[in-house]
Fold this protein.
Amino acid sequence: MSTMLKAIHHVAIICSDYPRSKAFYTDVLGLKVIHEVYREARDSWKLDLEVSPGVQIELFSFPSPPPRVSRPEAQGLRHIAFAVDDLDAAVARIEAHGVVCEPIRVDEYTGKRFTFFADPDDLPVELYEG
């Protein structure tokens, strides 16, 4: 039986500081802005960012969002992972912006290299080579 799901369309992230997170996802990670809108009734920004063709991150701001446990082993969504061709180059680019990456590890099952770092709200982000 085949799945009805075709692909991941987007991942939604609610940030605590919209300008800081917008700069992180556009300047540090290099994601392209698709659409940005201020929703006055909600006092909220919504920013659509292209990860790759057909895959987006929706970055939201809301007044006083409640904090959320975000460590990778907490219940719920564990982390977001981005595929990269050259992990060393990606880490160098991110660290050039003052972001600290964990030491590079190797996936024991696939042999692929990966690392983690945190976004401005301490949400775990992974870079996975391959």
About this structure: The longest strand covers residues 44-52. The helical segments are 18-28, 87-96.
